[in-house]
Amino acid sequence: MTPVQIDFGNSGPERVVGIDLGTTNSLIAIMDLAHPEVIPGEDGDRLVPSIVSLGAKGEIIVGNPARKLLIEAPDRTVYSVKRLMGKGAADIQEELKLFPFRIAEGSESVIRIALGDRTFTPPEISAFILRQLKKNAEAHLGEPVTKAVITVPAYFNDAQRQATKDAGRIAGLEVLRLVNEPTAAALAYGLDKRKEGIVAVYDLGGGTFDISILKLHDGIFEVLATNGDTHLGGDDIDIRLMRIALEDIASEWGEDLSRDGEAVQTLRRDVIAAKERLSFVPFTTLSFEFQGKKYAREITRELFEKLIEDIVDRTLGPCRDCIRDSGVTVEQIDEVVLVGGSTRIPKVRSAVEVLFRAKPHTDLNPDEVVALGAAVQAGILAGSVEDKLLLDVTPLSLGIETMGGVVSKLIHRNSTIPASATETFTTAVEGQRNVLIHVVQGERELVKDCRSLARFDLKDIDPLPAGMARIEVRFLIDANGILSVTARDARTGKEQSVEIKPSYGLSDEQVEAMIAESIERAEEDFNARQVVEARVEADTILAAVDKAKRNDAYVELAEEERQHITDAINQLLLVYHSDDHLLIRGKIDQLNQVTMKLAENIMNTAVRGVLKGTKI
Amino acid sequence: MNYFDFFDLPHKLDVDLADLERRFHALSRKHHPDRFTLKSRAEQQQALDDTALLNDAYRTLRDPIKRAEYLLKENGFDIGEQKSNNVPPELLEEVFALNMAMEEMDRPELEKSRQRFVGMQEELDRELAAKFSGYDASGDRNVLAEIRGLLNRRKYISNLIVTSTLP
């Protein structure tokens, strides 16, 4: 036992960590003096794969150890869960065709994923990843970590942001800020390289694509515009290659492997490896082995580039829109920064170069730059980075439903956040007590083409003739890009009660319940560890006593003393398998007591032996 | 709080955008919620409200049209949505040509219409800029009334530009 002394006294202000909660990998970083540093996990790896598995004993396994289980236990393991954050059942039908997510019976607004015999919501799964990162940081820093900045794709909508915040809360982290990934990257980049000018950040990750254009001036990082696609990334490339291989295999082997979890995950691993090799060599062989059978196919970079052409093209539209919205011309953009693992693909780089008419900047590690930026933002919030300030924007317009299902926009996309808008509502019939406001996000004219965000019910309106009530409603998007709504009666100035019915995601009560459950589980986990430790200690002493019994000193003990030892051993063995670590420790202490004299005798014999120069 | 006052600027229609941006950055540094994360809840809420106001104000003041509308409203002018479908008489001929082109999906004609509208808008913007300076120099409410007329006309023309722009 090595008790760790934690000094809460003079550690100064609490550290705030920066977390990149990625589709494929997650990282945690911290400001170390003037520079952000990624904190490695126990295995020394800086990237924690965003993979979660439910072990046979009900324990949660995260990261590299879970990666193996993706193949060995595909029905208990999940990856790319970020794609499901903030989604409803109807949203994910397309996703289900491509991903082996096992969706359990859930509600329309919240998905539940089955791992073995248990089910979890996407925020809970993400919370497992966050908890692992938190643990890594705590082990590294030797102090508790409770406050974090977490990055999200810039193009994440309100529900997706809320789901990420919920994940943080469930993991026991106070999420001080959600930061957009490209903005975080710009912050890390701006700290290091360029201090002034216009910078475009092109971020193509595992599952999402973002483009942001920023103006850097005197420590202020002002986002001019952002655009993207939350369903576009390296995963799509993998799926395309896998489909081809599965078709080949079906015709070569006469076997459809697409329903076999183990086969699909093995193939996915091999496809990703081939894809990654193609960024460095002109051709490679995709080889796959399953149940003694072999499949191999040579893929040239030329063929690969043809295959992914439309995926790369899909990033260009948002880029053009972003340039237009930013109010700058392509020529005015000083640098393009590449972020995300998929930007290692030469085809992606050349497409970016053609569009922006400039060689993209590649000397930052595209896997780490977002986490590093998150750490810088954490430093800003903690007060340790004083001269920098991020001014971000909302990626999507916010509107309300009006007559005929038409959207009336209140806050336009690319507005700097925090941003607000105030609207006055009234009643349509005499004595009406409620007004329902339907809030949507998106750029389209009709409600049905936008994303429903929530319904706000203005309640207990004073009964008045039609059109007389005047309820002033304030819509406020905070610095995290999350909406809140308050209302007041403009005639009386009284606060008006508003009931929020989010269209997607967890209610506050659900999150609270999950936090409570996770604390309970943490206690369970803690207790389990104590029991394991007590048993290890019992093993040690039992082995020592066993060895001592073969020593001459044992025979020299009185009959009664030997009986005490035998009794104490038996009592310890009796409680050995109990789940009460205090009970086990009590019996260990007892055995320690009754063997004290034996130990002394052995020690004396040993000393005598040494003095005589003989070995015992 | 009044947007001009928040930026400590005179209530005028001509604004130096570089100076406005400098003020915006300085005020952001002062009020932004990032500066108050570890402070009390009340201070955080205040920072959020102040910054939302700052951003809303900056968005309005940096755009000459929105800025003018804001100043008109401040001076008691009603600039509510012009719901009337009445075509301004001087545009009758143009709108008629546009409708014809729309009906026949005549792309070259539509493009010609669009270019004429863009030209009109540019001319209007020059006219507005002159009126802005005129108001700033005189503070004459009659000039504001003229500006309101020009803004309404501009709104109508920008709608025509949208209509005549084909995807």
Mind sketching the topology for me?
The complex is a heterodimer of chains A (616) and B (167).
Chain A: E1 16-21, E2 25-32, E3 35-38, E4 48-49, E5 51-54, E6 60-62, H1 64-72, E7 77-79, H2 93-98, E8 103-104, E9 112-115, E10 118-120, H3 122-141, E11 147-152, H4 158-170, E12 174-180, H5 181-192, E13 197-204, E14 209-217, E15 220-229, H6 234-253, H7 261-277, E16 283-290, E17 293-300, H8 301-326, E18 335-339, H9 346-356, H10 369-382, E19 389-391, E20 398-402, E21 406-411, E22 419-425, E23 435-441, E24 451-459, E25 471-477, E26 483-489, E27 495-502, H11 508-548, H12 552-555, H13 559-575, H14 581-594, H15 596-612
Parallel strand pairs in A: 1-11, 11-12, 13-18, 15-19
Antiparallel strand pairs in A: 1-2, 2-3, 2-4, 5-6, 5-7, 8-9, 9-10, 13-14, 14-15, 16-17, 20-21, 20-23, 22-25, 23-24, 24-27, 25-26, 26-27
Helix pairs in contact in A: 3-4, 5-10, 6-7, 8-9, 11-14, 13-14
Chain B: H1 3-6, H2 17-31, H3 41-61, H4 64-74, H5 92-104, H6 107-138, H7 141-164
Helix pairs in contact in B: 2-3, 4-7, 5-6, 6-7
